[in-house]
């Protein structure tokens, strides 16, 4: 685990936020299941995590899938078993995600 922090989740729906004060692509999240760390994509492929993270869009007033977690916002995520999400700091390049 890096210096970014982690978020403990229970099975089912969880409300999360990035523990960092920078934008964080969902694909960068590491998933720790019973001490084994796997990538976000591997966790989705194995059915441990639902592929979409949902944020609230204030303009449309509804929840919608997001690819990038913004600092100071909350997001809904569904997992099939207890696990930890690890947020390891990385350099974020806005041009890669615009």
Task: Please explain how this structure is put together.
The protein is built from one helix and ten strands; from the N terminus they run E-E-E-E-E-H-E-E-E-E-E. It is globular. It is mainly beta and 98 residues long. It starts with 5 loop residues before the first strand and ends in a 12-residue tail after the last strand.
Which characteristics define this entry?
two-stranded antiparallel ribbon, 4-stranded antiparallel sheet, about 100 residues, mainly beta
**Percent range for β-strand residues:** 35-45%
Helix content: under 10%
Overall SS class: mainly beta
Number of strand elements: 10
Radius of gyration using CA atoms only: 13 Å
Low-confidence stretches: none
Output the number of helix runs.
Answer: 1
Q: Within the largest sheet, what's the order of strands?
A: 1-10-4-5
Outline the biggest β-sheet.
4 strands, antiparallel
Average pLDDT score: 88
Shape: globular
From N to C, what is the helix and strand string? EEEEEHEEEEE
What is the topology?
Elements (H helix, E strand, L loop, with lengths): L5 E4 L2 E5 L7 E2 L4 E4 L2 E4 H6 L7 E5 L4 E5 L1 E2 L5 E5 L3 E4 L12
Antiparallel strand pairs: 1-10, 2-9, 3-8, 4-5, 4-10, 6-7
């Amino acid at each position: 685990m890096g210096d970014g922090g982690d978020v403990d989740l229970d099975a089912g729906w969880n409300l999360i936020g990035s523990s960092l004060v920078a934008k964080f692509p969902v694909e960068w999240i590491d998933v720790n299941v019973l001490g084994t760390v796997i990538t976000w994509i591997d966790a989705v492929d194995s059915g441990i995590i639902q592929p979409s993270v949902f944020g609230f869009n204030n303009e449309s007033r509804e929840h919608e899938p997001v690819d990038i977690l913004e600092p100071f916002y909350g997001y809904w995520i569904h997992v099939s078993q207890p696990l930890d999400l690890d947020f390891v700091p990385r350099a974020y390049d806005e041009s890669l995600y615009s």
